[in-house]
Amino acid sequence: MAGQKIQRQTGVALWRQIADRIRTSINHGDFDESGMVPPETTLALQFGVNRHTIRSALAALAQEGIVRAVQGRGTLIERKERLSFPISKRTRFSQGIGDQVRETRSVLLGTGEEAASAELARHLRIKTGAPLVRLETLGQADHRPVSRATSWFPADRFGGIAETYRAMGSITKAFREFGVPDYVRMVTEITATHADENDLADLQLSPGAIVLITQALNTDLDNVPVQYSISRFAADRVRFTIEN
Amino acid sequence: MAGQKIQRQTGVALWRQIADRIRTSINHGDFDESGMVPPETTLALQFGVNRHTIRSALAALAQEGIVRAVQGRGTLIERKERLSFPISKRTRFSQGIGDQVRETRSVLLGTGEEAASAELARHLRIKTGAPLVRLETLGQADHRPVSRATSWFPADRFGGIAETYRAMGSITKAFREFGVPDYVRMVTEITATHADENDLADLQLSPGAIVLITQALNTDLDNVPVQYSISRFAADRVRFTIEN
DNA sequence: TATGGTTGTCTATATCAATAGACATTTAAA
DNA sequence: TTTAAATGTCTATTGATATAGACAACCATA
Question: Do B220 and B125 fall into the same domain?
């Protein structure tokens, strides 16, 4: 395990720092040979903390479903994944990761109408205050939540797209119904921050977790903006790949 | 400020969660009108915590140099920034952010020779065990550390590039000396994780901070790999912009 | 079946994190 | 100069975090 030392008196409990480190090591494949996490006493020695502190960290990871402790045997690794999301002109949620999971699904969390803010209007190249359709969706891979997205569509062109999406289960298909056979991604911004309370709930994260945020504009083939979306990904479950 | 509620008993101290939130709000420009953070009593009410807890959070931000408390007046915002890094075929550290800061600098942290691991060999399309030159650099903007990069170059073609880099102060210029007038970025992978102890030291972060990690391959104009690098960015100081 | 290695549980203690309240000090404006 | 509003400092108390040690329970295997 790389970078063994941990920080004390920083407002982040030792057990949480250690849990984060072990999760990273698991995702990195450090324990692939045995399929198990090292014994608690070994970890306690490595991290220079008490065994009880290690137990708190492992309990947190067990709560996340990442490891499972078996008395007498050790602590088994249950899950280990980081989906690779290609980011390109043809970025779609389900495409590109189809070969990595058995099932992808997009769930509608909520929808609404709102007037375009100055920022949204600038991105979508419409007037401030113009009506927008807002879509909140949850992306799942093999029944595990991966991303949480808010999308805005110009309402004058895509009024009722929420219902269409609900029926089709895919934004790509809904677009087709509205006479947009294809669309491309223009600009994507990527940032990272700590998960807020909505992230924790929707993405089933533990506090202190990281979310990767992408902001993207999709345009139709005539270069007219059709969708602006902000997506929040569980950082320990995904990796972005940019192909030029 | 969005998402007011904070999580208790999660291994992350309230004061640190609140400090992170306030830092985000400052970077988001929420307090731009006044140039000040709301009064401690107001924040205590908003976050639903004791004023002393707010004071701990603000003390941490003051330590980072982000705010400065003045008795009788309030808490002033000292610094607010998130550099925008364009990611494209022409990604360079100094280019693209030149208009956002007064000075960019790249500092050599260390250098060495090593044999190519299987993974590095695959990326650079050379034989496993082939000699590599390793460069550890620190990217600074206006004297503030922004990124920490480790780069590998095939030693048979770029032996001594460390010294050239040290003399030139730029990888682009060093490449030119080795007969590589231009180079392009092939694939970039982006992940995020918590800062490790090296990040904390080199990037001057506080524990629990987030680093954005990019892995990139640069090739010359004949499509031959010349550099593979892993860069770690302080997430609260940067934003990646992808232009298609 | 006996043993070594592992996780599970309990008690006790010290330190950090958070709350609560009171009052001092400083600044800006009435 | 007075006052209101803001930060600074102090004491006290409670709960979470971390350490320490001992022993029970369980598993694989020699």
Answer: yes
- The residue range of the domain holding B117 is 83-242
Name the more confident of B184 and A174: A174
Instruction: Read off the pLDDT band of A115 (50, 70, 90).
Output: very high
Give the count of domains, chain B.
Answer: 2
CB < 8 Å to A188, chain B: 241-242, 244
* Closest residue in chain A to residue B9, using alpha carbons only: A207
How many percent of chain A have pLDDT more than 90?
23
Q: Which nucleotides of C are covered by protein (CB under 7 A)?
A: 4-11, 16-21, 25-28
Q: Please give the full DSSP string across chain A, using - where no structure is assigned.
A: -------SSSSB-HHHHHHHHHHHHHHHTTTTTTTEEPPHHHHHHHHTS-HHHHHHHHHHHHHHTSEEEETTTEEEE-----EEEEESTT--SSTTSTTT-S-EEEEEEEEEEEEPPHHHHHHHTS-TT-EEEEEEEEEEETTEEEEEEEEEEEHHHHTTHHHHHHHHS-HHHHHHHTT---EEEEEEEEEEEE--HHHHHHTTPPTT-EEEEEEEEEEETTS-EEEEEEEEEEGGGEEEEEE-
- A178 in any annotated domain: yes
